[in-house]
Design goal:
The protein is an alpha+beta fold and 187 residues long. It has two domains: 129 residues, no CATH class; 40 residues, no CATH class. Helices cover 21% and strands 30% of the residues. It binds zinc ion (2 copies).
């Protein structure tokens, strides 16, 4: 299988008028191999424009549209999460000496943009897309906020089925049996 490297940009080949990128997203290109907490659904797209500035800095602006396939943490059903993200990123070339001119720093801070680094020759937009996905995926992965989850007794999905199992709180609580003791005493 020949490797499609459409998301890896050769910085030196970005023309002075800028480079338009419009690509479909494949899980391998956005480095999701080995990522088992979510998956990329087909149909994802990256549309952006790259402009090269002085010192090989690159300004990226565009939009990321994709759907992630996840599993609900309560009911274990699959669900999808839309990712619609405007992108405005500024890549600086990381220098070996790592010298940062103070003037540059102030100017960039004023612009209030997201700043990333590239190591010189190549810019891997797949890395950027992957990071955006991780920023989008919430810690609590729920198919919906009010998901009722699985019954701990019979395992049925309580979003769909109303089982007759007693609520687990009452059964497991030590106060349940205590209360019973007191009730017996009063008699
Ligand atoms: Zn759920
Ligand atoms: Zn049940």
């Amino acid at each position: 299988m020949s490797e499609r490297r459409v998301l890896v940009i050769d910085v030196s080949r970005i023309p002075s008028e800028g480079l338009e990128v419009q690509e479909s997203l494949e899980p391998g290109e956005v480095h999701l191999e080995g990522e088992d907490s979510f998956d990329l659904a087909p149909g994802g797209r990256l549309k952006c424009r790259l402009e090269r500035g002085e010192d090989d800095s690159v300004h990226l602006r565009g939009r990321l549209s994709a759907r992630l396939a996840l599993q609900c943490g309560r009911c274990l059903e699959p669900f999808s999460l839309p990712v619609e993200q405007d992108l405005d990123l500024f890549y600086l070339r990381r220098r070996a000496e790592d010298e940062v001119e103070e003037e540059d720093e102030v100017e960039l801070a004023d612009r209030d943009m997201v700043i990333a680094y590239h190591d010189g020759d190549e810019l891997d937009l797949g890395e950027m897309v992957r990071e955006q996905f991780f920023l989008t995926v919430p810690l609590k992965r729920l198919c919906r906020e009010e998901c009722r989850g699985l019954c701990p007794a019979c395992g049925s999905n309580r979003n769909h089925v109303r089982c007759e199992c007693p609520p687990p709180e009452a059964a497991a609580s030590p106060f349940g049996s205590l209360r019973k003791l007191f009730e017996d005493k009063d008699r």
